[in-house]
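Protein modeling request. Please complete all fields; requests missing the sequence field cannot be processed.
Requester role: graduate student
Desired output: 3D structure, token encoding
Chains: 1
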Amino acid sequence: MRTAVWQTGSTDLGRLRERAREAAAAGARLLVTPEAFTSGYAVPDIATAAQPLGGPWHEAIAAIAAEAGLAILYGHPERDGEQVFNAATLVDRDRSVLAHHRKAHLYGDIDRSTYTAGEGLDAIAEIDGLRIGILICYDVEFPEAVRSLALAGVDLVAVPTALMRPYEVVARTLVPTRACENQVHLLYANRCGEEGGLTYCGESCVVGPDGTDLARAGSSDELLLADVVPARLAGAADATTYLEDRRPELYGALVGRPVAAALTEREVLAAADRLVEAFAATDTAAYFACFTPDATFVFHPEQHRFDDRATYEGVWKGWLDEGWRVVSCTSTERLVQVLGETAIFSHRVHTVVDVAGEQAASEERETIVFTRTPDGLLAVHEHLSPVPA
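Delivered output (389 residues):
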């Protein structure tokens, strides 16, 4: 699919009509304009100028898309009740809205004094079999934003922007990096010229999924054309397997969920000591507090496995009713194997029990599986077997 990026400082819908016709005549199916195209970015009274989705700006641009016969992604300030959003809307040649994004990461005083941050990174549409994700300006500078779209299966990320000097590094380095690390095409449509004390960088670009430029503008008004080729996507995915090689189980801290450190042998031994001491004292509450509710139990004297803690507690109560209690429990030959947040503890157990005044001793081998839970280190499985003669 051929795509077009219009780098401009204009807000003129007449100029947009000309560029749309030019892009369509060159075979483009999609045209991307800069951030806040309809109003300008660093201009006064944005909140006053903002229009609701479907307002006059939208109707005019939808008509241009229909007339030219292509889809247009345009940036605009959007009013929604008392709130104003920095938005981008993708309208197709049949005037339908394919996708709509509100800038999620606000940058600097201009954004933060005017706009409310958007709450989604899921603006995705499909055109001619290609899935297109939408971000705005500062959004693309966050690796998580582009990665979210890549994991949702987009082929192309389109980014209206208003990048100013001296931040050329974003267009030259970060944008190609985002494309390469996510194996997506990236269309970056910047403003140019000067406005409200800002000098825009220009350097709009279309970058392939291998991070190489397919087209790049200078610093003035320019229309870029470049083809998005599915075969290029497949080749990049084969050569650069970042998505395939991810280990999301290690990335919890990125979303505010701390990545738990692996258990230590000391923690495991302490948990085992609590369990053994509670058993030796016949302390029902303390003993069963050492297990998760869904813990399982396999004891060689019992005919059946206990499939949860409640089942074992019922059997334990029956023993107590019969006059059973633990006299002593000695743990030796202790071994620990740590597996991340889970650990296997095994030991030899010498137990003396009293049943209605008669004592009996046993030598057994016990294995306990512990895991980290919000309530601490608890046992999820206990296996008791006789020691071979």
